[in-house]
Amino acid sequence: MQEAALKAAGLEGSYRALETPPPFLRARLQEIRRDYSGVNITIPHKESVLPYLDELSPEARAIGAVNTIVCDQHRLIGYNTDAPGFISGLDEAGISYRHKKALILGAGGAARAIAYALKEEGAHIAVYNRTLERAQALCEALGLHLVTEPLLEAAVRSCDLLINTTSVGLQDPQSSPLPEGLLPCEGAVVDIIYNPSLTRLMQEAQKAGLPTLGGLPMLVWQGALAFELWTGVKPDVRVMYEAARAGLGEALQT
Ligand code: ATR
After folding, report:
1. Do 143 and 233 lie in a common domain?
2. What is the pTM of this model?
3. Which of 91, 132, 220, 231 has its CA 20 to 30 A from that of 4?
4. Across the beta sheet with 38-40, what order do the strands follow?
5. Is 119 part of the annotated catalytic residue set?
6. Are 230 and 122 part of one and the same domain?
7. Cα-to-centroid distance, 42 and ligand 1 (Å)
8. Which of 82, 163, 166 to mutate to test the pocket of ligand 1 (most atoms within 8 A of CB)?
9. pLDDT of residue 250
10. What pLDDT is stored for residue 43 in this prediction?
11. How far is it, in rounded angstroms, from Cα 112 to Cα 17?
């Protein structure tokens, strides 16, 4: 996706994976400081990378997680493009969120970025998570409503926007983060899982006639925003979508 965007923009460069086990994170960042224009950071380093950076964007600091680093004259600056990437995906799909009631399932790093982004946009946000303490911590940090088990059903049915940020549905496409039949009465359903492209939760929502959105737009838009931070150039997002779809198609076949 990034290489296709570089090529389409007529820029030189390459984008590749640098597998980095946790004990090597510090050494890897020295290498990046020396040799790279920028990197994306992914699981499990999005939070643990913070102390090694020279500067953080206000969003990355508030979210407490970084997914993009720009290397500017050997200084490492951390950003979070997951948050605005999620919003761009909703905008593109025409799903409204301003002053709407959003219910987030999950309380990990992705939930944190999405909650921050939606709150900045004026949504009213509630959080439900399997582990109550984690949801409590997120709600306290960002000033959100906590949903406990007995209140989950009412919260789901009445929300305008349901967002699955848990990994349920990723390994086992037949699993869903909610019991069968429990869906918003009228709201849109977003699942940030992009592989499979249609999760069980989305299938059930579509059957019920609700608008749905998968995880591909967030993946592409966070990448497009990172590209712009690294190069100063707006990438061709259609090219990135095509490359991402082709890459995922290949991943599914192997
Ligand atoms: P990420 O940074 O991608 O959000 P994470 O921090 O590992 O990843 O968070 C994963 C989320 O999926 C958590 O909210 C987790 O719930 P717990 O806090 O209870 O662990 C949720 N999750 C993972 N497996 C789950 C399952 N089988 N049922 C319900 N929630 C699950």
Report:
1. no
2. 0.94
3. 91
4. 38-40, 68-72, 75-79, 55-56
5. no
6. no
7. 15
8. 166
9. 72
10. 85
11. 25
